[in-house]
Amino acid sequence: MTHMLQMHFSQDDTPVPPIPTWSPEATAVHVAHMRRTVAELTASGELVEVRGLAMPETARIVRAADGGPVVTGGPFPDSKEFLFGWWLVDCADEARAVAIAARISAAPGHDGKPMNMPVEVREVLPEPPAEH
């Protein structure tokens, strides 16, 4: 079963300073945790893909209007939460996906303590059958 594990941050309940402001030591510890997780999931054959996203102020919202795209800055001004990145994992079941998500959530933060960031776990649905 393939699952998408989405790392979310919220200005309200996850008060983490942006990674570029972390000390070099804190950044190294955090990155080492993530690299170990990537290596282990790669070795087990469960990792499909992992990606981080640029900071939310670089996001753009696109809507189709009058035959062309209308682009505005993002995220929405009233949004307190943003997607920080995702992992695609192909594992035996949802319980294993939840265990992986918990490990990601526990990545050390700027203060060396587990960040406990929210990680949303969602099954990736298979492609619909081709039409005949």
Describe it.
The chain has 132 residues and is of the alpha+beta class. It has a single domain, classed as Dimeric alpha+beta barrel (Alpha-Beta Plaits, 2-Layer Sandwich). The protein has two helices and six strands; from the N terminus they run βαββββαβ. The longest helix has 21 residues, at 24-44.
Topology (elements, then pairings):
Elements: E1 2-10, H1 24-44, E2 47-52, E3 60-65, E4 68-73, E5 81-90, H2 94-105, E6 119-123
Antiparallel strand pairs: 1-5, 1-6, 2-5, 3-4
The low-confidence runs, each spanning 5 or more residues with pLDDT under 50, are none
- Backbone shape: flat
What is the N-to-C succession of helices and strands? EHEEEEHE
Could you report the average pLDDT, rounded to the nearest whole number?
87
CATH architecture: 2-Layer Sandwich
- Number of spatially distinct domains: 1
Number of β-strand runs:
6
What is the CATH class name?
Answer: Alpha Beta
- Output the radius of gyration: 17 Å
- The computed structural class is alpha+beta
Q: How far is it from the N-terminal to the C-terminal residue, by CA? A: 26 Å
Order of strands across the biggest sheet? 2-5-1-6
Proportion in helices: 25-40%
Brief overview, please?
The chain is α+β, with helices and mostly antiparallel strands and 132 residues long.
Key structural traits:
2 helices; Alpha-Beta Plaits; four-stranded antiparallel sheet; flat; 132 residues; alpha+beta; 32% strand
